[in-house]
Amino acid sequence: MLKVAQWITMMLLFSAPLMAQQIISGNVRNRDTKEVIPAVSVRQIDGNAGDYTNGQGNFRFTARTKFPVQLVFSCIGYETLTMEVTSATALQVVLAPASVLGKEVVVNASRNVQKKIESPVTIESIGNREIINSPQPSYYNMLQGLKGVDITTSSLTFTTVTTRGFNTSGNTNFTQVVDGMDNQAPGLNFALGAAIGLTELDVDNLEVLSGASSALYGSRGLNGTMVMTGKDPFKYQGLSFQVTQGVNHIQKGKSNDPLGPSPYYDYTLRWAKKVSERFAFKVNVQYIKARDWVAADTTNTNSQRSRYQDPNYNGVNLYGSKTSVDINPFLEGAMAMIPDLAPLITPMLDTANYVARTGYPEYDYLSSDAKLFKGNIELRYKLKPKLEAIASATYGQGNAVYSNDTRYALTGYHLSQYRLEVKSPQWFVRAYTTIENSGNTVIASPTAQLINEAWKPSYNANTGDGWYPQYTSALLEAMASGKSYEDASWMARQFADQGRPAAGSAYFNHLKDSIAGLPTREGGTLFQDRSRLFNTEAQYNFSKLIPFATIIAGLNYRLYMLDSKGTLFPDDDGPIHVAEYSAYLQGTKKVIHDKLSLSLAFRVDKNTLFEKPRVTTRASSVFELAKESFLRFSYQNAYSFPSNIQALQSTPVDYNSFASGGSTRLLNGVYQFDKYPAYTLSSVQAYQKSENPDSLVKFIPKDIMPQSVDAFELGWSSLIGGCVLVDVLGYYSTWTNFIGYTNVANTPGTDDPNAFKDHSTYVQYNIAYNGAEKVNTYGYAASVSVDLSHNFLAKANFSSDFLKNRNNSQINNFNTPNYKFNIDFGNEGFGKKQRYAFSTTFRYRPAYFYQIGFASGTVNASAVLDAQISYKLLQAHSRIKLGATNLTNTYYRTGFGSPAIGGMYYVSFAYNVF
C-alpha cells in the first residue's frame, strides 16, 4: 500500500505543471481616447481558452497551462495585438485604431470566411459600427445606399430589397436569411422586411450578394441574397437600449400628404449576459409606432384627363373605380323608353362610353397607423470550447402595407420563427420553423369595389335600378339642359353618389369591416393564411480531412404546410404539403503559388410540385494581380421554382357564385385546373357572351414552370496605398422561362355591360405565367472608398441596370433607373477625446418607368439627403444623436403607387451602444 501511495503522489507531482490553471484578466482601452473597448476578442495562442471584453472593457478567463501565455487581442477597427503574459496580474491593454478599408471579412459569398476584397462575387456589407453612425434610424433604409441595391418602400415598416433591377414590393426572387433561417412568409414566399429581422441593436453584420445565388442558397435566389447575423451573447454583453423620437409629415398637403406633423417612436432594448464560460443568453425587444407614409397619387390610369373631365377616371391610389362599364346599353334603354332622346343619344353610340364608379382615397380607408413589435430570445451553451448548442425564438407583430395587384393593408399580422442548432467551426446542424398569420388583411381595390356594391349596387336586375341607371338618367337630363358631356358627367356622378358613405365614417367602416372580415370563399376579401414552414439542414467543411482543398457539402429539407382555409390555395379540405429537397457541394483550390483561387459549386433541388429536379452551378476564379488587388470572374446558374402563390393560387373571384355555393376561382397552377374552372379576362368575356348564362368557361393555360438565369460577372477590387478602395464590375444575364404577370378577372362591361344582368361585380387580380422569350439583363457598377485620415471617410458608388427582349405582354417587375449613384461622407470621432461624430448620405435616382400589377407609370427623379451628428457621453457610456432623413423634405417615391416619403427629423439616446 505504501508503494501505491508513493506512486500516486509522484504522478500528481509530475502532472501538476500540466494541469495548472491560470486566471487571466484585464481591461482593454482605446489608445487615443482612453475609452473602454467592448467585444474585443482575447484568445490564447495554441489553446482553446479566451474571452470577449464586456461593456466595461473587462475580460477574464482560465488558461489551462502554465505561464508564460501568449495572447492575441483583435477587434474590427483596431490593430491586432499579440502579448506575452508571465503572471496572473490584471492586464492594462491599449489598442491602436486602424483603418478597416480592405480588411472587411465576409462569410456568405462562399460560405467560407474570407476578406471581402477577395470575394469571387459582388458582395456588399454593413457592420455594427456603420449602423451606429448612420443617419437612418433603421438599418433597412441603409441598404438603398449600397452599390447596385434597390428598395421599394411600401410602408414605413415594410421595405423590400433586391439587386440588379427586378425591384418590386414583395419580391419572391430575393432571399433574406437571418441567423441561418430563411425569413420568407411560408405562404407568400417573400420576406416581410423587418417584421422578424434583427432588432436595431442586435445586428452584428449584414451581407448582400448581388444577382444569382441559387448554387449556395437555393430556389428564389435569382435577384440576390441578404444574410444577417445577430450578435453573439458571449461577445456582446450587458444591457443596451436606444430611444428614438422624431416627427414626420412636416408639411400637410405637400405631395398630397393628408397628414400633419406626427410623432415617431422607436424603443429598442438588448440584454445579453455570459452566465459562465459555457452558458450565455440574450433578449431583444423593439417597438416602433408612427403615422405611416400615405399613398396619395391621383394620376388617372385611364387617360390624361382629370377626374372632372373623365367619367372613367381611375386614380392610382383611389380604390373602387376599377368597376368600369360602357353605359351604351343603358343609353339604348333610355332611348327605347323615350324616343325623343334619339337626337341626343344616337351620336353618343358611335363610340363606347366607359364610366367608372367613384373611388375612395387611401387615407381614411387603409389604416395609417404603422406599428411593429419584435422580440427575440436566444440561449447558447458550449458543449465543448468549440462546440455550441443554440436555441432561439423570434416573434414579430404589426401593421404594414404592400403593393402588388393592389395595395394590401396587413393589420395585426404575426410571424414567428423557432430554431435549434448545434455548430462547430467545421459543421452545423440546424432546424427551424416559421409560423405565419396574415391577421386582418384589407385588400384595397376589391374591398372598395364591394363597398360600392353594398351601399348602392351598380345594377339591380330585379328592380332595374342601380348606380349606373341613376348616373345615365342624370347625365341625359343635364345634357338636355345644355350642359357639355364633361360637365354633365360630373353632375351625374354627384347625383348617383348621393348616400355614398365618406371614407372613415361609421357606415363606411361598418361596410369595410364586414367585407374585409369575411373570407373570400364566403364572398368577402379576407385571406386566412396560417401557413407554416419546417426546415432542416446540415453542412460539413472537409478542410481537416482533405487538406489540399476547401470542400464543403450540405443537405437541406424543407416542408411548406399551406393553410389558407381555401382563401389563397385550394386547401378547403386541409393543408397542402409542398416539400423541397436539396444538396450542394463546393470546392475551392488555390494554385500558382496561391495567387489564383478556383471554386466550383453544384446544387440539386427537387420540389414535389414539379417532376424534374433542378441542377445549378457556380464557377468562379479570383486572381491576385498584385498585393491587395484582385480580378474576379464568375459564372452562375440560378433558378426559381414558382412561389406557392404562383404555382397554387386558387382565389375565389365570382362573388355571386358564392351565394349559391359556387367555386369559381382565379387560378395559377401546376395541377388544379381539372378541379376548378379558372377566370381570365377572355374567359370572363366568353362567359358573359355565352348562350347559356349558367355555364362556366374553363380556361386551361400551360402549366407554370421554373424559371432560370445564366449570369456572368467580371470584376476588379483593389486597395490602393492603404487608403483608397476601388471595386468595378460588369454583368450579363440570360433568363429562360421568365415568370411575369398579367391582369385577369377584370370588372364587368369590358366588352358586354349587359353582363350586369347576371353578375354584379368582378375584381381584378394578376396571375403569373412563363414568357416564351429569352430575357436579358446587363449592367455595370463601380465604387470608391477613401480613408481621409483622422476618422474621415468618403464613399461613392454608381450602378446601372438594363433589360432587353422585354415581353410587353407581361408585367416583369424590372423597376430600376438606368443609373443611380450614392455619396457618403462622415467621421466616426473628432474633437476632444473624439466625442463628436457625423455622417451624411446623398442618393440620386433619375426618373424611371415602374410597372406593377395595379398601376404602371413614371417614378419621378429624386435627390435625397440624410444627415446626423452625435455626441458621446463617455462617463455614462451613452450617445446622443440628432438626425434627419430626407433633410429637405422633398417628397419622393420608390415605386409607382407607393407612398410619397417626406422628411423625418429625430433625436435618439443610446446607452452602451458603441
Automatic annotation (TrEMBL):
Pfam families: CarbopepD_reg_2, Plug
Keyword annotations: Cell outer membrane, Membrane, Receptor, Signal, Transmembrane, Transmembrane beta strand, Transport
Keyword Membrane in record: yes
Gene Ontology biological process terms in this record: siderophore transmembrane transport
A single cellular component GO annotation: cell outer membrane
GO molecular-function term, one example from the UniProt record: siderophore uptake transmembrane transporter activity
Signal peptide interval: 1-20
Gene3D superfamilies cross-referenced by the UniProt entry: TonB-dependent receptor, beta-barrel domain (2.40.170.20), TonB-dependent receptor, plug domain (2.170.130.10)
Recorded topology in the membrane: Multi-pass membrane protein
Domain TonB-dependent receptor plug: 116-225
Annotated compartments: Cell outer membrane
Protein name: TonB-dependent Receptor Plug Domain
Organism: Chitinophaga jiangningensis
